[in-house]
Amino acid sequence: MKSFIFDLDGTLIDSYCAIVLSIYESFKKINLNIDKNTIYKNIIKTSVSQYFKSLENDLGINLDFVRKDYLKIEKNYLNDIKLMPNALKMLEELYKNNSNLFIFTHRGESRFQILKNNNIDKYFIDTISPYEGVLRKPSGDGINYLCNKYNLDKKETYYVGDRLIDMESAKDAGVFGILLTNDNNTNIDCFIINDLLDLIEFIK
Questions:
Q1: Which long-range contacts (CB under 8 A, 24 or more apart) does 24-31 make?
Q2: What gap in Å lies between CA 127 and CA 124, rounded to an integer?
Q3: Interior/surface letters 177-204, b for 16+ CB within 10 angstroms, e for the rest
Q4: Which CATH class for the 16-80 domain?
Q5: What does the alpha-carbon distance between residue 91 and residue 197 come to, in Å, rounded to a whole number?
Q6: Could you say which of 22, 112, 134, 168 would form a disulfide bridge with 73 (CB–CB 3.0 to 4.6 Å)?
């Protein structure tokens, strides 16, 4: 039986705009003038947490209070976060095929509200994040946790994400990586899809 473990932001949900706006607003409160495009480029390179850590090193200050403020601000945008194109149809098809569906994301408690708001929470057996104790990506710890807990066959398991760090996580766990991207010339060692509906080919 095929198993699909999904990243969330930028893979299943179109949330980068909400994330960038929330970070931008939190920065403005402390007169930290970083444009939205720069914020976006940095968060997709690794993660929001890693971006904050990098800024702390560059600026020589602790930004924990800013990160907490960002999370508070983002709550105002949660109801505006929608699914990525064809995400619902793809999930329906995989679910009907009896595929095992999971989520491994860096997003904390807010993931539950977003999944429920978009009526896709019912499709997933389990979701996991570093807030439950697994290591952050690029470690494959979260993937390994799900594989071990649910006795998943790694030869039949795929991790789907939109960033290099996701593919590194898949490789670390020893499962297949599937990268959702419009760049077909990427040199990353993984499967490439341009549309979430392309995942249906993996269950045929």
A1: 25/70, 25/73, 26/66, 26/67, 26/69, 26/70, 26/73, 27/66, 29/66, 29/69, 30/66
A2: 7
A3: bbbbbeeeeeebebbbbeebeebeebee
A4: mainly alpha
A5: 9
A6: 22
Tokens of 93: 């098809």
Between 3.40.50.1000, 2.60.120.460, 1.10.645.10, 1.10.10.60, what CATH number should domain 3-14+81-203 receive?
3.40.50.1000
Domain limits, CATH 3.40.50.1000, in the chain? 3-14+81-203
Amino acid, single-letter form, for residue 30: I
- Tell me the C-alpha distance between 19 and 112, whole Å: 16
Q: What is the pLDDT of residues 120-178, one digit of tens each?
A: 999 999 999 999 999 999 999 999 999 999 999 999 999 999 999 999 999 999 999 99
Instruction: Write phi, then psi, for 92 (nearest 5 degrees).
Output: -60, -45
C-alpha–C-alpha distance, residues 14 and 82, integer Å: 6
Say what the pTM is.
Answer: 0.95
Token pair listed for 131: 């807030």
For residue 98, what are its two tokens?
Answer: 């009896």
